[in-house]
């Protein structure tokens, strides 16, 4: 990519899932609050709320200078049961996304969750986006999946600029570390999402744990508290410590939620926490 992605971004799935008579207003207020908190990277997709996420981002961001923020969307899956990784499908999906966003271009386009269609995504979807990037019609090409082997293939076999890794690089799960190491070696940026899980957010007293992950989360939270840090605060700070990770996506469905997340981001995390030997052992940090 020509520019480094901001440290934090707003993920658009919750924005698309809002419903009710005030849903559009709530979505716009959430995006406005994120912008006011300094967030300048926004991620959406055509199947987040059957296009509602893109429409709402389009409404909210129209008032801001296009040069002041980065926006990404996705291709390949336009609905829960609609999959099309063909050349025509990719071009059509992107055109429809731009119409909903009311924009002429986006900064980053992700190939999303190709699954069993991986070969078609490599052979047809990626070349289209590569061409659009070369022509300057999009800023960068990315791939967004939760399947580590597929992400590995894309990084090795194509010239993607960015990978979006959902939920596999956090204080509680570092299975994505080999992929991030590969990204670092090949100059591919990485975005991490899904770090503020319900388990991480459940920091008030921790009920009696029932499984190994819950027990470990409680133990890590206790270590964080010794340094004056909450588990959500540490969870947001952790991914960016890997040199390949440029940005962490935060999902929010209300202005209050994004204000709370922004407050966590603003609080400094003591460097001594990350040097704590007990934390290294519990979080399986290297």
Task: State the gist of this model.
The chain is an alpha/beta fold and 286 residues long.
Describe the structure.
- The structure is a single chain.
- The chain is of the alpha/beta class and about 290 residues long.
- About 45% of the residues lie in helices and about 15% in strands.
- It has an 8-stranded parallel barrel, surrounded by 4 helices. A two-stranded antiparallel sheet has the order 4-5.
- It starts with 7 loop residues before the first strand and ends with a helix.
- The mean pLDDT is about 90.
Count of helical stretches: 13
What's the mean pLDDT score? 92
Percent strand: 15-25%
Cα-to-Cα separation, first versus last residue: 28 Å
Structural class: alpha/beta
Helical content class: 40-55%
Numbering strands along the chain, what is their spatial order in the largest sheet?
1-2-3-6-7-8-9-10
Radius of gyration, whole Å: 19 Å
Q: What is the string of SSEs from the N terminus onward?
A: EHHEHEEEHEHEHEHEHHHEHHH
Low-confidence stretches: none
The biggest beta sheet reads: 8 strands, parallel, barrel
Keywords for this entry:
single chain, about 290 residues, alpha/beta, eight-stranded parallel β-barrel, two-stranded antiparallel ribbon, 13 helices
Fold topology:
Blueprint: E1 8-11, H1 13-17, H2 23-36, E2 41-43, H3 52-61, E3 70-75, E4 77-79, E5 82-83, H4 87-101, E6 108-112, H5 118-134, E7 140-145, H6 148-157, E8 162-166, H7 177-186, E9 189-193, H8 198-201, H9 212-226, H10 231-237, E10 245-251, H11 255-266, H12 271-274, H13 277-282
Parallel strand pairs: 1-2, 1-10, 2-3, 3-6, 6-7, 7-8, 8-9, 9-10
Antiparallel strand pairs: 4-5
